[in-house]
Amino acid sequence: MITDDAPLREPVNEPLRFPTPPAALALGGQIDEWLAEHPDWTEPSVPTGPGDKFVRDPVHGSIVLTAAEARAIDCGPFQRLRGIFQVGLAWLAYPSARHSRFEHSLGVRHVAGAILDRLEAVRGRPYQAEHRAVILAAALMHDVGHGAFSHASEGIIAVHPAYTGQLPGDDHPHEAVSALLIEREPLRGRITALGADPALVAACIRQHDADKAALMAAGLPSELLGIISGPLDADKLDYFARDSYFSGLPSLVDLDRILQTMTITPDGRLGITLAGASALEAVLYSRIAMHAHLYGHQKVLAGEAMVRGIIEELVGPAVAGHLGSAGRGVLILRGKGGAPQEIGFRLVADYLRVDDRAFLVAPTDQPRVADLQDRILRREMLKRAFSLSYDELPTDLLGEPTISEDEYLRFLLYLHEPGQLERLRWTILRDLPTLRTSDLWVRATDVPDVANTDNYVVDRAGRLTRNATMFADWDRRRDQHYPDVPHHPTLRNYLLLKAKVHVFCPSAERATVGPRARAAIAEMYRESLTRGSRPGLVAPGAIEG
Q: 64, 71, 107, 198 - which has most CB atoms within 10 Å?
């Protein structure tokens, strides 16, 4: 425990570096240790009565589960998803957006079953029972590895050097954890009871090249991969509708029409016919609107920044890719047998030990952590000191009365290079030595990942179409390799006016931080002009999907 007279990090904004980074514990070992804390999870399950189980759902009506599926979800690793909010801190702006990963997972299982039924009608014969079982199990378990605050915590894990070496390859944390949990008890046995091979279920969730090769070797038809991960996957079709419903935002998702017009493309992928193009267009428009108004709402981003502040106070700040001081605090959670357990959040698996609410109310030995927790619970949020968009440029500091749209887009893309937003944060902090690093953040609205619809919309003859929707030829992953800025008009509009970069700080510091933020942005703009080639479009951690 840290005492009240423990020394502070000095100076505040130039933390010490570790001479040697702490050794990373492999993620598999972390998961084994976490599961060992819950021996009751591996005890024989209470028998479930025979017959299908019906779950009432406000989005899909009745969700039908088999008795084996009911047993699979009635275990500790899956039940903990009830405490993980689907859209993280969105309840700070949309009070009813408190739905969880648990009901979302049931919804994805329901949608995956409907897609399988549709594709069987398209191909004129049923899929093999084991192939259906793998897809349905993957749909049900795809989010079982999510930790507290879901994508917000993943953003921290992806960039903070404290977690370097803990994840295998470039996996998203929740996908890597999901795969490891599926291949271990208690989930392994329950998935086997569904008639699915746990190794293939894990591969279906990860979908690395080696995983796809293993799935193809097992005879799984290629179009089924798109049910779990792709532009029309069951995950997206559920959360588009579910997030709209619980946030109160209007939904344009016509799931029935999407399902009615699903097909298999000539190259063996999950696609949609031209008859469903308008319904698809509405879904994609909804996704863009929700990124701008829900996931990227400034109150939501401010809340996520404050969660990052809590982690930084516990773990230590990162400067120029290095880990700062070791942190000087823990959260005290309910551990094995109800005994107190001190968690420092230096391991990826630590995020599995707590749910969203517990993270915000857990006792701590670190007063600054307690202060941030209390401020979130009181909705006493960090405020915007400055928000960058094309119509809010600090042109008075740039030496130019105006800059063109293309010039601004080049600069925005420069800011979205990996590490650049954190550089901007520390550039602002450089001249603010008395402001805690955990109280100043630079956060950007995500750019939605919309795959080019020309790749999966087919006409009546089964041929891929051109320009079937307004999103034809929108593909960030391809656009970022162009030698110039994006040309798609909808993407340009989003980047110019909706993909804002916010500088957050305490309300009392806005008058000081605002001018410094404007000056730092102008400084980085002049720096960007010296770049001779166009950078990538977004940092990997900024991709939502």
A: 107
Residue 399 lies in a domain: no
Distance CA 227, CA 238 (A): 12
Q: Is residue 285 part of a domain?
A: no
244's tokens: 């709209």
CA distance 459 to 464: 6
Task: Find the helix or strand (DSSP H, E) in which 119 lies.
Answer: helix 101-123
Contacts of 298 (CB under 8 A, 6+ apart): 384, 387, 500, 502
Total Cβ atoms within 10 A of residue 318: 21
Token pair in block for residue 110: 């329901």
Transcribe 444-479 into DSSP letters. EPPPP----GGGTEE-TTS-B-SS-STTTT--HHHH
Q: What is the DSSP letter of 537?
A: S
What confidence category does residue 452 fall into, taking pLDDT thresholds of 50, 70 and 90?
confident
CB 75 within 8 A of CB 186: yes
User: Which residue range forms the structural domain that includes residue 179?
Assistant: 32-229
Which residue has 């193009």 as its token pair? 277
In a domain, 65, yes or no: yes
* DSSP per-residue string spanning 326-374: -----EEEE-GGG-EEEE-S-SGGGGGS--HHHHHH--BS-HHHHHHHH
Q: What is the DSSP letter of 158?
A: H
Peptide bond into 11 cis (omega under 30): yes
Residues ≥6 apart with Cβ < 8 Å to 78 = 72, 102, 105, 141, 144, 187
- Strands 270-273, 457-458: pairing is parallel
CB atoms within 10 A of CB 276: 22
Q: What is the per-residue pLDDT across 153-177, written as a single tens digit (0 to 9) for each?
A: 998 898 888 888 898 877 889 999 9
Determine the longest span between alpha carbons in the chain, in angstroms: 76
CA–CA gap between residue 385 and residue 510 (Å, rounded): 5
| Measured CA distances, 52 to 68, 115, 223 (Å) | 9, 20, 28
For the CA atoms of 489, 493, 494, 500, the dihedral, rounded to the nearest 10 degrees, stands at 150
Does pTM surpass 0.85? yes
Q: Does residue 47 lie in a domain region?
A: yes
What is the 8-class DSSP label of residue 262? Answer: E
**In CATH, what number is assigned to the domain containing residue 140?**
1.10.3210.10
441: part of which helix (H) or strand (E)? strand 441-444
CB-CB contact of 140 with 108 (8 Å): yes
Number of domains in the chain: 1
Confidence class for position 320, pLDDT limits 50, 70, 90:
low
